[in-house]
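notes to self, project folder thing:

trying the whole complex as one job this time. last attempt i did each chain seperately and stitching them together was a nightmare. two parts in total, labels are on each line so i dont mix them up again. if this works i'll redo the older ones the same way
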Amino acid sequence: MREKHIGLGLFSLLVFIFLLGPLLIISITSFEPGTVLKFPPEGFSFRWYENIFNTGGFLRTFQTSIIISLLGNLLALVLGVPAAYALSRYDFKGKSVLNALFLSPVLIPGIVLGFTLMKYLIVIYHLPMYLGLLIGHTIIMLPFIIRVIASSLSSFDFAVEEAALSLGAGRVRTFFTIVLPNIRSGIIAAVLIAFLESFNNVDISVFMTGPGVSTLPIQMLTYVENYFDPTIAAISMLLMVLTGLLMFVIERIMGGFSYFTKR
Amino acid sequence: MALLTLDHVSVAYDKQTILKDFQLELEKGKLLSLLGPSGCGKTTTLRLIAGFLEASQGKFMFGGKDYTKVPANKRNFGFVFQSYALFPHLSVYDNVAFGLRMRKVKDKDISSRVMRILEVVNLNGFEKRFPQELSGGQRQRVAIARALVIEPDLLLFDEPLSNLDANLRLNMRVEIRRIQQELGITTLYVSHDQEECFSISDQVAIMNKGVVEQLDRPETIFKYPATEFVARFIGFHNFIEFADRNDAGEVITLHAGGRMFTAIAHPGTALPGARKGAIRPDDLIVSGDTSADVVNALPGIIKVSTYLGRSYQYVVETELGDFTANQEMEAPYLSGQRVSLIFPQDKLVLVE
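result (full assembly):
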């Protein structure tokens, strides 16, 4: 018979409350009919959900966020997959330096990176805001892409690649028909993690947004500076539902998140 | 003329030379093994021939053409890896069919060729399985089928059996030899396992530090090693440095420490300048009779006596150094006992 650990169970419960409690409270307060965020709510209404679509340019910034995240992700993949491949496949001089360089966007405080990017891309080189935003997001996604894909390449037996070569496949063809299918789960995981990182980003975006160009988190931040109504709670609720849906779809397509750990 | 020739080939990785001025020839339809300790350059040689490595100097000729710069995917050589290197995301069928698809063979022909080769390696019925669902021996047979189905001009094996357990190794090496002879395919086989190489090869090349020390039929190498390295590698543990050497017909007379030894000059193997004698522990006879002062005998004292099960092993201290001898007998000689070591003249081999 399995032992029961009452203390451990209780402790786990507390951790869960600590983690999920605020989310639960936000979800409940989003249905508040009044104009001020309150818990417990004094009634039930979809008033603030409607407000999302009517005011504040939330839809427009949501669109910007999605486009920037997807485009940035694509760029980060184009740069990151070859980099991850080279870093795991070959030994060369300066490899560790390059490794550190690729990870540096995670290590440098976002504020510093954001400010520097603004200073150079926008102020000195006069790039359009939108392009600056895209470049910034590509940079912060790159380390995640490289890290996750390199780790999935680390368990890849490169003799397999040589086998394909000896059977008559060229280098490029070998990469697409043999290497890529075997690190597919790693690439999907990398894309998802990078997407979330970019979609939630504030510290880079805050320097790269301005009149006409903004991302959803920045828009939300601006909104709460001026209004105290439960619109933000409603948006949070929607984002949670969206994330949940995304997870569900991935689960259906790829047979669950166990897919990421299994090889 | 040889099908394959490596002509003064050198390979170096960051300043470290693995092969230097390397020479090798292989005839059509033969199986040649490269045998040697790890780091001797045998795998490097194989990878060079496969096209995974580039020679910094020298030429690789194959079938009369210069293959030195031909990329691996244009060579039509089959390669069997130590780690099997099957494509994990493809079924057995698709693994085997891969090379044919690269060659744009028609689907109908692919299917018949894959099925035929799976039969050759005794894997019919396994087409739909994935590599993870196969045992090590089955995986290796898929790897062999995958390399064979493209009808390669040359088959390369890189320690293909070292990941299998002992029984399976035995079966697989018989299998490899059977397939190789059935299809008459020219093969280069790399291993560090002496028995494995000797049992399947037409010829064995013993390698050391990037050089072939001896290339010969397995039987010849086993009986008549050419160098001290080869002799040590195949189990000659005892060596005597002779002071002089006189050839008189078939018999060679030698002296060491004031004693006379004789050895038989075997045709084709008697190296003219060689003055180092080598003998296996199994061939060295320990005698309790120390009175006679005869040719090919050396007095000594038993230093260590070890029971090996089938026989006793003695380390005998003599004026020419320590010798190891294995002997089957009921009552062992004891440590400190005076004995005489007899070197049968047909077992004493001269090496360089």
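what i see at first glance: Chain B has a mean pLDDT of 88.
need to look closer tmrw
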